[in-house]
Amino acid sequence: MGFLFESLLLDVGVLVACALLVVYSYFKWSFTYWKKLNVPYVEPCFPFGNFKETALMRKEFGYFCRDIYTRLEGHRYGGIYLFNAPRLLFLDPDLIKDVLVKDFSTFHDRGVYMNEEIEPLSGHLFSLNGKRWRNLRIKLTPTFTSGKMKMMFQRLVECGDELKLCLENIAGRGEVIEVKDILARFSTDVISSCAFGIECNCLKNEDAEFRQWGRKAFDQTVKMIIIGILSSIAPVVLDMLKVSTVDTDVSKYFLKMVQETVEYREKNNVKRNDFMQLLIQLKEKGSLDSEQGSEDRSEEEMNEFGETADGLSMSSMAAQAFAFFLAGFETSSTTMTFCLYELSVNPDIQERLRTEIDTVLEKHDGKISYEAVQEMSFLDKVVSETLRKYPPLPALTRECSKPYHIPETDIVLDTRMKVFISVIGLHHDPKYYPDPDRFDPERFSEEEKQKRHHYVYLPFGEGPRICIGMRFGLMQTKVGLVSLLSKYQFSVSKKTPVPLMFDPRSFILAPAGGMWLQIKKRSMEYAELLL
Question: Which of 24, 56, 204, 385 is the most buried (most CB within 10 A)?
């Protein structure tokens, strides 16, 4: 009996060894892809390709994006490997312009995994492809015009007032606080109100239900990280196993919440100046009041997801609202966090910005208005420089919809080849931004911007797939900063991380361990006028 067991173990061991050898050989063969095409590439290692440090959560994704850019310095493009999957990185600004704008017909898709049958919330604008993306983009674009931003602006100001009130006692004692969480609660209040029409009051109650579900949506467990990797290199596995890219409980919560909100408003004829109201209008009419009426549009058959050319389905509405939450919550709160950090490290810049805020608000009777924020040119430079140093999404991705001949080369990319653009690499390239680690808002003076190639600054992407919520994100960030800096001063403390360390578990660039800054009430007389 013992002999048979040992023999079985030996057979199993041989099979495992053979399987590993086959896998290793396949990976080594895959790693010759770029060499065969005579494309410069970063040498990969088994089994991670060039993704080892990030896959093992030793370094954040932003490090990966910046590192591969640096290692391919001097080339216009270069090959990398995401595990065994070949990817092409574009470094040259002219080639980047081709991908994002000139040859957009070939690169109109992001190549992001989605399966609406398994996960309805995945069918949002960011991940949709082809004609469905174009149709939805046309519908949603009017929801982010300056007129619609003005419509939501007062709610942002109210959230800003609540943010100031939340910090008043703490600032009076000159305490050291973790600002990232507070700013995340501010962003959650803004998004919950403007996207979902829900007053969750996270600033007053940090354990509010919406805040808890928001945290869970961003919780990068090992399971979700593995799912994220599979979605990039082997999406067929997720399809076969029917695995959702969103936590099941989170998905059920957001779907139910949107459905109940819509049904309540329709039943009681409730109307609000928010994103949800605009989605309801699109659901009912297929267009917004300022657009051409749906009766003038061509008819289109109902597709398998219940969306027509003349309206949005309930699941599509939920998906767009969920994407609005994901994009507007984390990116804006981290941008404000990094901005306050830089202003604390550079008190002279903070004081200059505060002077501008005081001057402009005084012209507007001490009130934060849409027009007042638009007048703050130095604030715009400060936010732009923050987004340069700390772009929330370190990279852009696109997918070839057909074979693509790289201009001025003999290289032809295969259909479905995914390409990368290292945003953080471009933003930290000394060729475009001398002394790139220095925080200098004057890089974004009109004179300096004219000196640079337009496609070396891409915090929101560019071209037809530029971030549709860019205006809202910037507006939310600026209102938050003006609300705080008009009343409080920020400075570094013993707990402030200098230099910064980034969270390796976060896909979006985020500080590790939070951001600890000292906050004090302003000593200037003008602060009294704003009370």
Answer: 385
Annotated binding site for heme: which residue ranges? 467
CA distance 25 to 21: 6
Whether residue 47 is preceded by a cis peptide bond, meaning omega within 30 degrees of 0, is yes
Q: How confident is the model at residue 449 (pLDDT cuts 50, 70, 90)?
A: very high
Nearest CA among 331, 197, 193, 336 for reference residue 259? 197
Pairwise pLDDT comparison (509 vs 241), residue with the higher score:
509
Euclidean distance between CA atoms 133 and 145, whole angstroms = 19
3-state secondary structure of 471: helix
**In this structure, are residues 418 and 86 in contact, taking their beta carbons and an 8 Å threshold?**
no
Taking the whole predicted model, whether its pTM rises above 0.85 is answered as yes
Contact 340, 179 (CB under 8 A): yes
Q: Name the band, by pLDDT with cuts 50, 70 and 90, for residue 5.
A: low
Q: Which CATH class is domain 31-529?
A: mainly alpha
For residue 221, the model assigns a pLDDT of 59
> Which one, of 16, 274, 287, lies nearest residue 140 by Cα?
287
Residue with tokens 């974004």: 444
Tokens of 440: 């200098």
Could you give phi then psi for residue 75, rounded to 5 degrees? Answer: -110, 150
Q: What is the pLDDT of residue 101?
A: 97
What b-and-e string marks burial along 95-118, b requiring 16 or more CB atoms within 10 Å of the CB? bbbbbbbebeebbbbbbbbbbbeb
List strand residue ranges (DSSP E) for 72-209, in order: 77-82, 85-90, 176-178
Binding residues, by number, are: 467
Checking if the pLDDT of 298 tops 70, the result is no
Strand, coil or helix: 452:
coil
Please calculate the CA angle 346-351-355 and round it to the nearest 5 degrees. Answer: 150
Please tell me the distance from the alpha carbon of residue 195 to that of residue 387, in angstroms, as a whole number: 23
Cβ distance 265 to 274 under 8 Å? Answer: no
Token code pair at residue 451 = 């000196």
43 burial level (CB within 10 Å; 0-12, 13-18, 19+): exposed
Whole-number pLDDT of residue 71: 96
Please count the residues of the chain: 531
Q: What is the mean pLDDT of residues 423-436?
A: 97
Asked whether 389 and 425 are in contact (CB, 8 A), the reply is no
Residue 156 token pair: 């942002």
User: Which residue reads 């973790």 in tokens?
Assistant: 178
Instruction: Summarize pLDDT for 277-288 with one digit per residue, the tens.
Output: 888 888 887 766
Looking at residue 294, its pLDDT comes to 37
**What is the pLDDT confidence band of residue 356, given thresholds at 50, 70 and 90?**
very high
Domain ranges of the chain: 31-529
Longest dimension (CA), the chain: 93
Give the three-class secondary structure for 90.
Answer: strand
Per-residue model confidence (pLDDT) at position 531? 45
* Strand, coil or helix: 419: strand
